[in-house]
Amino acid sequence: MFARPLVLTLLAAPALIAAAPVQRDELAQVQQHLQGVTSMTAAFTQTDRNGRTLTGNMTLKRPGKIRFQYQKGVPQLIVADGSSLYFIDYQVKQVDRWPIGNSPLAVLLNPKRDITKYATLKPTGDPRVVSIEVHDSAHPEYGRITMIFQKNASAPAGLMLQGWVALDSQNNRTTIRLSNQKFNASISDGAFRWNDPRPQGPRNR
Length: 205
Hints:
Helix content is 14%, strand content 40%.
């Protein structure tokens, strides 16, 4: 997800020519999916570069809002309130903040972003699975994200987001796997408020 992911072999030009329309179609399908999702909830499993695994629940509301509520006993929270992305550590009473656009998660949070300018379709070996890598070559410091979708007629635009691998500018890798995905239910903005643990901070944000 944050700090703290595929080889493309071209055997012959005719194969590339034949594959190009399919790639365009699948990128367009991903774009339609992202534009069709106004909200999403899911359970998640997070694995960091050290192999540490945590679980929790994700709540997404576009544009710009997301919350990763970790399992009981983990004194951390990740939340975006529409303009900024925060990592809150309640154990050490520390808050780190990034502009949303500087995070690999920006592709999930901005429904107006044209991913075809930044995305590359990656081979999966399974016709039921679509994988895209998104990064802005003009801003490598923003990191990159590889998103995995499974074709599912019941999901927006026929795709179900299964998770992603995020790589930040320091090559820190985080893998997120989703389950129990639900789309486009009404979610209050209050779901993205948080308590500031800093001694001089406001009681909530």
